[in-house]
Amino acid sequence: xxxxxxxxxxxxxxxxxxxxxxxxxxxxxxxxxxxxxxxxxxxxxxxxxxxxxxxxxxxxxxx
Length: 63
Fold this sequence. Notes:
- With 63 residues, the protein is mostly helical.
- The chain has one helix at residues 3-24.
- Helices cover 35% and strands 0% of the residues.
């Protein structure tokens, strides 16, 4: 398998995870050092906060 094929497989896998999370309205927040720069920290459940409701997704491109 070439580097391009591996990369394509990885991207497709990530996209499938995004679609599944959106459809189930389940998101897996994870704390990291990048959280210090994130403007969504006040809404993030990883920090004990409550996010707004997920908007309805009417169409996901690429499925």
